[in-house]
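Hi R.,

Here's the chain you asked about this morning:
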Amino acid sequence: MRRVQVLGVGLLCVGLMAPASVAQAQTKEDGIDEIVREVKQEQRLRAVIVRVTKGDKVVSTRAYGTSLDDVPATTRMRFRNGAVAFAYVSTLLLKYVDEGKVSLGDTIAEWLPDLPNADRVTLKMLANQTSGYPDYEQDTDWVRSFEENPFHVSTYKERRKVAFSKPVLFEPGTNWSYSHTNFMVLGKILSKVGGAPLAKLLRREVLKPMGLKSTVADQTSEIPAPVLHAYSSERRGYLGLPASTKFYEESTHWNMAWGTPVGATQTTDIFDLARSARKVGKGTLLSKKSYRAMTQSRLIGFGQRQDNCAPSCFTHVVGYNYGLGIVRSGAWMLQNPLLGGYAATMAYLPEKDVAIAVAVTFKQKAFDAEGSYPNASDTIFREIGALMAPKDPPPVKR
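And here is the predicted structure, written out as tokens:
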């Protein structure tokens, strides 16, 4: 009865929503709730925060589970956004293209002439991961160093040294391979183009114009309150623990600066994540030409597996193809980071103006014997996407 009364108040306030529309909206919200609860149980999730919008209307904003033991997760809690920052960095690059400061075909020799193939690697190749630069994150010694001390602040100089201690993976523009090195270099160049630290440029040129109030950069492990706490079993291999030994540690304040350009290590909340999905997905800050360059599926059929970059190099398909700092999956545009016990997805379907944002943390049983775990936020997004757009659902991963 109380639920009906609340709906009645909403009808009086809005005055425009017909009873059938109310019922349909409630059905969608209930469907989202059912999806989240089922995936949360199946994939052993500790917390889930979700926000779904269609146009300017909010379909659902809810939090499930706990942050700390006996501390419920809330929709205002902050979490790490990882590679979502790649979309912001690419937006900044394309704004500079629109302003005539650079072009996508410019080689990086003007700014970083001492890097390998600097006279042939272009800004576009950095943004769409076709430069051939090795990924420092795949270096065995680097990974071991991180696992030994996950609180260490990884500097640009350290990461650059590791990345280019290895030969390039392929000739520029001849293959595709996911590499954090590309955006590390791109961030450095954009700070030179803009004449200011990248964090300042992103705040002024991208985050503030998008209306993002809770997305902040910090090279330390700091997360502004209220904090969604995370836990992980990723270091069990480093510690040499047998599968029979339980291991689960708090990872909230591990330093994640290694994964993003200096100045783009960020935390956010579910409201900003959903807003970002829509703003990036609509190309709000860009010209039509730059928006197309960022979002069109140009790499389908491109790329191939190579022994020296497997499994991060592969042929792009409809279900996964890279734009400039964003991923295309069918008609959906997204980023779906997974790092340090956090997983998040922001996704947008332009044809229906649907934005989906999901953030999750994991229980101990979510991790396998090697400390690996799936991106459950992506699973939730795909199921919600099918509910919101049954005629254009996100492709299901196989």
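One quick note: The CA atoms of residues 11 and 303 lie 53 Å apart.

Cheers,
M.
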